[in-house]
Every structure is written in structure tokens, then in C-alpha cells.
Amino acid sequence: MNFHDLAQARHSVRHYQPHTAIDDAELKAIFDDVLLTPSSFNLQHWQFVVVRDDARKAALRAVSFGQQQVVDAAAAVLVCGRLDAYLDAPRIYADAPEAMRLKALPTIANAYANQPALQREEAVRSGSLAAMALMLAAKGRGWDSGPMIGFDPVQVGALLGLGSNTVPVMLVVLGRALNGQQPARLYRRPLGEVVRLETLDGPPLG
Ligand SMILES: Cc1cc2nc3c(=O)[nH]c(=O)nc-3n(C[C@H](O)[C@H](O)[C@H](O)COP(=O)(O)O)c2cc1C
What we know:
This protein is of the alpha+beta class and 206 residues long.
């Protein structure tokens, strides 16, 4: 599927065919593509927790306002962001050209150390991009998906073992739409409202 077709085909699916399995090989194929997502300084702040166990999915639904798709989907993936990803910069840049490494390492340390607001912003930014990549990569392999922020972050964090340096960014459920049925495309703001040329009060595109 080319990108246009992929973008048209993806919907936030809320009703899934229950008892559908997604195996490790399929997840690996999807995540191999997700890992190509860009991130600032290539720090790859994301981590993912894949929940397939029925009892754990039920517990997750209980702290996700009872949203049924959490249990009916084949997997519920918690996309996380790491606040301390910058500490891995020496490893990430170990094989980079020396000039790049010597420039990047102090820049990264200066930017992130003792900057909790930036650490959090970056964790959420990278995690959000990865979540979008996950939905598109899944669709490219025939899986439906749904992003969710309707959950209690503290309880979800406790349930799935997140430490204090990891923030939950988004849940993404993956599965097969019930009876293959895709939701209707919802209203989109018109192009001219959201795309302006040169400055925000410039002329609209189109
Ligand atoms: C950050 C985020 C959080 C969302 N949270 C939920 C959610 O908790 N439950 C839900 O049913 N849909 C959730 N959605 C799905 C949106 O309602 C959906 O993307 C939007 O209505 C547009 O529909 P479409 O994705 O099918 O085009 C969420 C979407 C995003 C991006």
C-alpha cells in the first residue's frame, strides 16, 4: 500500500473481533518498521509494552474507563517515553563519526540534564511519533488499530511496571475490526483552516 492508500485506510477502530491472536513474528515485523521513526538527537525515547494476556488486558480495561477494545483487540500496546533517554547518548553515538560524536554528546547533555520539562516534552513527542508509525505499520500489514489516551496514567503505569523515569504516552490497540467493518471517516477541518502560507495569518493553502 502506498502512503496515500495507507492514510485513507487507517481508522480508529473501537470494535474488534475477539479471540484474535497476533504472534511475535507479526509484532516483530511491525516494530522493525516503527523503530525507523525519527527522534530528536536520535535518542529514540520510546519503549513499548505489548499486552496480550487476557487477565492483564482485563485489568488494563478496568483502568481505561472500561473501554472494551482493550480486551477484544489482539494486543494493547502501551507506548511509553523515557525521561532519561539522553543518558544513553554515549552508546547511541559510539559508532558515529568522531566529529559528530564530539559535537553531539555535550550538546545533548547540556540540553537535557536538569531539564525535566524538556525531558517530558521530548518523551511525549517521540512517543507520539512512534505511536503514529505503529498504527501505520500495523495497517500496512493488515491490522486495525486505535489510539487511546482514555486511561489512568498512574494506575496503568503501576499495572505495567513503569518506573519513575518512564511516562505513558498513549495506548494503541491492535486487532481485526469486527466483521471487517471500518468506522466512517469523521469530520476533518478544511485545508484552508489549518494550512497557512508563510505565517499563521498568511493566505490559506487551496
Ligand atoms: C491522543 C489520542 C487519544 C485518543 N484517545 C481515544 C480513546 O481513549 N478512546 C477512543 O475510543 N478513541 C480515542 N482516540 C481516537 C480519536 O477519537 C480518533 O482518532 C478521532 O476521532 C479521528 O478518528 P479517525 O482516527 O478514525 O480518523 C484518540 C486519538 C488520539 C490521537
